[in-house]
Design a protein that fits this description.
The chain is α+β, with helices and mostly antiparallel strands. It is about 55% helix and about 5% strand.
């Protein structure tokens, strides 16, 4: 016999299938959406378990209490209010950090600028919301002091990351330049980025955004037939060489599809696993970058 829950399950599966088929990010956006939903469901599950654990004694048996409370309208109402208070408190505890759902206030003024830069440099972008997630990650933590700030700066003796996209330059131990992404982009795209300069980079958010879009566009075109948002982000964080090496390792692994990220290339990291920052290795950082950017980007759907 077909029951209501069976119809709901069938409808949910159908909606997910349609979402994948129409996903402009080749399944990436849908995967992140499903992860977000799963996180919410896990929060509800933990809240349910927490309520049962807090009331794990005979006097607090919910079935008996509700049976007694139901003998009068006032009692039933009070019982429901009590249950709602406990459930709300537990959901607040477990769901508070489930995912960053709110767009940072400081982003609102910059979103129209970012929208214009995307439309000008890459009007056919498969998922413009990606850049919202990328900026959050690069200037994070969000919320935080540097979140979505064009003046965000990471500076050490051998590295400098500038602005919304954390455009980077580095030096060796002798103080000689190793690489300079800003200079490379300016030289490669003089018409669009000719005014890009380390002297004014922190004062030109529109150029920061333009450089970000153009660089990711070149990575996307480099990938050609196997282009995916996840690979583009890995190239942003770790370089094209890392993308090629990780895909090659995946191709040598039985059952691993080098054209897919989640569950495939995601699992074949060839970067160093030696801790660099705290306990995180280059491999940890690259995988977290993709996952975090994708998760944060979903809130910008329709904004860019």
């Amino acid at each position: 016999m077909l029951r209501r829950r069976h119809l709901i399950l069938f409808g949910a599966v159908t909606m997910v299938a349609l979402a994948y088929l129409t996903d402009p990010g080749h399944g990436a956006e849908t995967s992140v959406m499903l992860m977000s939903v799963a996180i919410g469901l896990v929060a509800v599950l933990f809240a349910h378990w927490g309520r049962k654990w807090l009331h794990d004694y005979p006097e607090a048996d919910m079935r008996k209490l509700f049976a007694m409370a139901g003998r009068s309208p006032v009692g039933a109402g009070l019982a429901l209010v009590a249950l709602a208070i406990v459930s709300s408190a537990l959901l607040g505890l477990f769901g508070r950090n489930a995912h960053a759902a709110a767009i940072p206030a400081q982003a609102e003024a910059l979103l129209p600028v970012l929208h214009r830069e995307i439309k000008a440099a890459w009007p056919a972008h498969p998922w413009p919301a990606y850049y919202g997630g990328l900026i959050e990650h690069e200037t994070g933590p969000c919320p935080g002091r540097q979140c979505w700030r064009p003046t965000a700066r990471l500076k050490s003796a051998r590295e400098e990351g500038a602005g919304l996209a954390q455009i980077t330059r580095t030096w060796d131990a002798d103080g000689k330049p190793r690489f300079d992404v800003l200079a490379e982009l300016r030289d490669a795209f003089p018409a669009a980025l000719g005014e890009l300069s380390w002297l004014t980079i922190y004062e030109r958010p529109e150029l920061q955004m333009r450089a970000m879009v153009i660089k990711s566009r070149t990575d996307w075109r480099w990938m050609r037939s196997w282009a995916r948002i996840e690979f583009m982000d890995l190239a942003w964080n770790a370089g094209r060489g890392r993308v090629s090496q990780d895909r090659r390792a995946c191709g040598l692994k039985p059952g691993c599809d080098p054209a897919q990220w989640f569950g495939h290339v995601e699992t074949t990291c060839t970067a160093s696993r030696v801790a660099l920052y705290g306990r995180r290795s280059a491999c940890d950082i690259s995988r977290h970058h993709v996952a975090d950017v994708m998760a944060r980007a979903t809130k910008y759907d329709g904004k860019l």
